[in-house]
Amino acid sequence: xxxxxxxxxxxxxxxxYCGEPLSRPYWVHVQSEHPEEYAAKETWVQLYxxxxxxxxxxxxxxxxxxxxxxxxxxxxxxxxxxxxxx
Length: 86
Ligand SMILES: [Zn+2]
Hints:
This protein is mainly alpha-helical. The protein is built from six helices and no strands. It has helices at residues 6-9, 27-33, 35-39, 43-53, 58-68, 73-82. The two termini are 18 Å apart. Bound molecules: zinc ion (ZN). Zinc ion (ZN) binds next to helix 2.
């Protein structure tokens, strides 16, 4: 997995909840401003559906979500698999 697509996803680096532009590490904003969403892994499901619906590659979705929730892309992928989303 590479970050070659970093540029393509840069415009998505805003908060999915309030639209505020984010800077690294992205999860700090979610943790402090949206603690309920941050604590609930269930929100990954909707985020994944939103991003995938925008045509984003699944592997990129995993990276974006992992960066918003201080997780690893592998963790996001296995959670979504567990939930039957993938
Ligand atoms: Zn926000």
